[in-house]
Amino acid sequence: MYATEAENKDAKLFNCVQRGHQHSLETMPMFFMLMILGGIRHPLICASLGVVYSIGRFFYFKGYSTGDPWKRFTIGRYGFVAFLGLLICTISFGVNMIIA
């Protein structure tokens, strides 16, 4: 799944792109579930956070694909803030379901 320097001179760049893509695929199911469950109680907030998350993921991947993994956090960190907001909305929905 990853390239070695012996196979290709651009192996590091390829591996950064591969890891960024893999990380996006790993977080996607949780993102969808948080959007659905949190959106039941807070639809506008979750929709807004979903847009922020998507833009943050774009810049996360763009920074990661430069070959310097630390560049993924310049604007990409806001995607994680949005993810946290989605988690809070989902917890709010769950607590409301227990109380109601």
UniProtKB/TrEMBL annotation:
Recite the UniProt keywords alphabetically. Answer: Membrane, Transmembrane, Transmembrane helix
GO terms (BP aspect) = leukotriene metabolic process
The organism of origin for this protein: Olea europaea subsp. europaea
Q: What is this protein called?
A: Microsomal glutathione S-transferase 3-like
- Please give, as recorded in its UniProt entry, the membrane topology of this protein: Multi-pass membrane protein
Q: Which InterPro entries match?
A: MAPEG (IPR050997), MAPEG-like_dom_sf (IPR023352), Membr-assoc_MAPEG (IPR001129)
Per the UniProt record, which residue ranges are transmembrane?
31-55, 75-99
Q: Which GO terms describe its molecular function?
A: glutathione peroxidase activity; glutathione transferase activity
A single cellular component GO annotation: membrane
Give compartment(s): Membrane
